[in-house]
Amino acid sequence: MRKQYYFRESTEGLLAWDVDRLVELSRNLPRKRVALHEIHFDEDDRPTWRDMLEHMKLVNEADLSFPIILSASGAVMDGRHRVLKAALQGRSDIDALQFERDPEPDYVGVDPDNLPYE
Fold first, then answer.
1. Which of 35, 72, 82, 117 sits CB 3.0–4.6 Å from 62 for a disulfide?
2. Average pLDDT of 18-30?
């Protein structure tokens, strides 16, 4: 699978976290159940039909045995496809790991097209 990043806008520019590093840093956090209705996963960008098809494939392949990773504020840093799969299956909650304090980003102000994806 292609390298993935979690992005967040900031006054310093776009912040990017390497998802592999987030998985490693969250490994020892306590697992908890989070209600799906508490997770905000609406986004402003409008996908194309082709984008939606690709996302649906990823949703179908998502493994709900892995917990999602939440930022300190509750934003989904890793696991959006798992959240969607759980919602499609009619589940009310999902396993999650949540940072008490967000780790420092791996990149600040770097265009996503210029990040390493291998």
1. 82
2. 97
β-strand pairing of 107-108 with 68-70 = unpaired
Tokens of 57: 């494939």
Residue 114: Cβ within 10 Å count: 7
How many residues are listed for the chain in this entry?
Answer: 118
* pLDDT of 67: 98
Q: Are 56 and 37 in contact (CB under 8 A)?
A: no
Helices (H), the chain: 19-26, 49-61, 80-88
Banded model confidence at residue 51, pLDDT cuts 50, 70, 90: confident
Residue 52 has pLDDT above 80, yes or no: yes
Question: Which residue, 23, 7, 22, is CA-closest to 110?
Answer: 7
Instruction: Count Cβ atoms below 10 Å from residue 118 Cβ, excluding itself.
Output: 4
Query: Global pTM?
Result: 0.89
